[in-house]
Amino acid sequence: MTTPRSDATDYDVVVAGAGPVGLFLACELRLGGARVLVLERLAEVDETIKAGAINIPSAVALYRRGLLPELAAVWEAARERIRAFRGEDGESRLPPKFAGHFAGISMTKDLFDGSDPAWAEVGPAGDTGLGVPQAELERILARWAERLGVEVRRGVELTGFDAGADGVAVHVDGAPSIRAGWLVGCDGGRSTVRKAAGFAFPGTDPEITGYQAIVELTGGERLREGWNTTDTGTYAYGPFPGRILTVEFDGPPADRTAPVTAEELQAGVRRVTQVPEVTITNVLSATRFTDNARQAAEYRRGRVLLAGDAAHVHSPFGGQGLNLGLGDAMNLGWKLAAVVRGTAPVSLLDSYTAERHPLGAWVLDWTRAQIAVMRPDRHARALRRVVTDLALTTTGTTYLVTRISGVWQRYDLPGEHPLTGASAPDLELSDGTRLGDRLHAGRALLLDLADDPALRAHAAGYGDRLEVRTLACPDRPGLRALFVRPDGFVAWAADTANTRDTVAEGLPEALERWLGTPAARA
């Protein structure tokens, strides 16, 4: 059954955390018609160095909301910084076709086989993702939230909440409680929301201490650029001026929240790089990290949900954390908005955990595997040599880069068509637009590519939540129709070889599964 919006609440949804995940989720909720408030403890955007890039699914998701031009501008500025770091001899100083790394084993595009059709249909978002620092992404999303009318309160800390069957009373420091229908914790790995709601958070304990920093230093010419393994750990230098990352297998830090000092960082850099001439003269930005790997057993308890690091934590290797969180937001936003509007049953939210939890579990294992290969003991070094031999083959590079890029990701959805459950191909349509252009408003899309009135009749009761377009796609003549969810994933598809009876059996069920009861029957 659907749950109507309550007039007794101040907001439909309160989102705890205004990082990229919280802001993206808030924008998705607002696109879906929800009244949303974002609470953020910090008064300003956190400039600490964190994730430096987004993968293909994240780039595609943001492209589908019209944000690609802003992202591309940031990426071009980042490319200039990379060129400055390499110097006038440019490409000769780093692998010119770097495609990614696994446990610090670098791979190049020369060995990559991109024949999988999924790579060809990514569209303008590109084939490698985008180098966008996390703070810049947060600013882009904050501007989008402002354009959409999302209310964001900075410098306000959520201290607790009381959740009931009909809503949540959110308590904040120094202000009256806020009444909301739902609460979503996007408040990081130490999530107040997760702890207060009692979510189980099982996983594995940390065994490393890592540092990532932007510094000013002398002796940097003695460091090898890119990823490097030594007898005492692993380090990466570049691709931006002064950026360095180190990993030591000496257990977690005594206090991960303490400020990182230049002396502490320099000692670690010298130990791992084994270059005593390196001297850090100034720390511009620095953070510690570990390989603590945990995942909430479920992503929803009643009217409280989790997304991003609040739902899963792990080491940063492979840059999966930010991307995993953005995927959570894209998946959850339209579903929760539909429940808030009363057009979908609360049970739709069950698909959030069902679809996102397996991907989270995969990422945790992906990062654990890299830790196992990076250990400095003799057994791990032997394993690393084997993995390196495999990685530096066409088959190995293609497998690893495909996993790193995220192109392989799909959901296990009902239906036999090969596109069902996959991210929709960015089709070029007969009116000059692309499929991604059609998703800017955050609505579901039914593409009738065969001009079939009977097919369109099935969508008649969904005019308030579904865009229906009759267009042609010359590049895919065998494709008859495509039903795309608001998050850009294919919920149903049919080829021209399918009979009308087959279409009649599949499309109505898919529409009702994802969009609720049609208006004529509501």
From TrEMBL:
Gene3D superfamilies hit by this protein: 3.30.70.2450, 3.40.30.120, FAD/NAD(P)-binding domain (3.50.50.60)
Keyword Metal-binding: no
Annotated FAD-binding domain residues: 10-366
Domain of life: Bacteria
The protein's name: FAD-dependent oxidoreductase
Ranges that cross the membrane: none
Entry-linked PROSITE patterns: PROKAR_LIPOPROTEIN
Cofactor requirements of the protein: FAD
InterPro entries per UniProt: FAD-bd, FAD/NAD-bd_sf, RIFMO-like
Molecular functions (GO terms): FAD binding; oxidoreductase activity, acting on paired donors, with incorporation or reduction of molecular oxygen, NAD(P)H as one donor, and incorporation of one atom of oxygen
Keyword Chaperone attached: no
SUPFAM superfamilies according to UniProt: FAD/NAD(P)-binding domain
Keywords (A to Z) from UniProt: FAD, Flavoprotein
One Pfam family cited in the UniProt record for this chain: FAD_binding_3
